[in-house]
Amino acid sequence: MSHEGPAPLPATTYIALLRGINVGRARQVAMDELRGIVASLGFGDVRTLLRSGNLVFTGPRQPPRDVAATLGRAIATQLALRVGIVVRTSAELADVVAANPLPEAVNDRTFLHVLFLAQPLTAGEGALLDPEQFLPDVVRCSEREIYVWYRHGMSGSRTAEQLERRLRTLATDRNWNTVTKLQALATGT
């Protein structure tokens, strides 16, 4: 009689968004080094997109916040850098793309952005994010993302700064081009 034990859980694809690396001359991290750190933690199929801290990899199913904490500790230990990290599963990222409340902005792919939040917005934070105060930019909030259409471009807009001052949680921004490229990388499409 054979006792094989329970079948292993299928691997989950994760997307890790690191905040504040490779901006200017500060906090430079080589993407091959970052991939090596993630692989050393037992994650597989590790890929990066651009040089701004976008990782896609697979691993056992676990809460994304635990994955972020594991990555954060490893980066702090191996690179002596403390970086903010927001993690989503590929299914969660697909939901972010599908739920885009600004479909009219998708042709403005570099002006449409998503702020990914480490923790959900509280009711109090949501109340402080009245879309009218950000005009001419268009701001729409969901529970864990804030969509921003920088109508005249991000340069010169104060919307990002105003949003960050009102949030109690880590947020990291990606433009729509990057969001959709990450989704394609995560799903293999």
Brief descriptors of the model:
single chain, 189 residues, alpha+beta, Alpha-Beta Plaits, 4-stranded antiparallel sheet, 6 helices, 8 strands, 32% helix
What would your notes on this structure say?
With 189 residues, this protein is α+β, with helices and mostly antiparallel strands. The protein folds into two domains: 12-92, 2-Layer Sandwich (Alpha-Beta Plaits); 95-187. Helix content is 32%, strand content 24%. The strands form two sheets. A four-stranded antiparallel β-sheet has the order 2-3-1-4, sandwiched between helices. A four-stranded antiparallel β-sheet has the order 6-7-5-8. The model has no long low-confidence stretch (mean pLDDT 88).
Total number of helices = 6
- What is the overall pLDDT average? 88
Share of helical residues: 25-40%
Biggest sheet record = 4 strands, antiparallel
How large, in whole angstroms, is the Cα Rg? Answer: 18 Å
**In order across it, which strands form the biggest sheet?**
2-3-1-4
Q: What is the end-to-end distance?
A: 43 Å
Number of domains: 2
Order of helices and strands: EHEEHEHEHEEHEH
Question: What does the overall shape look like?
Answer: globular
Number of strands: 8
Architecture blueprint of SSEs:
Blueprint: E1 12-19, H1 31-40, E2 44-49, E3 54-59, H2 64-79, E4 84-89, H3 90-98, E5 112-117, H4 123-127, E6 138-141, E7 145-149, H5 159-166, E8 171-175, H6 176-187
Antiparallel strand pairs: 1-3, 1-4, 2-3, 5-7, 5-8, 6-7
Quick structural gist:
Helices cover 32% and strands 24% of the residues.
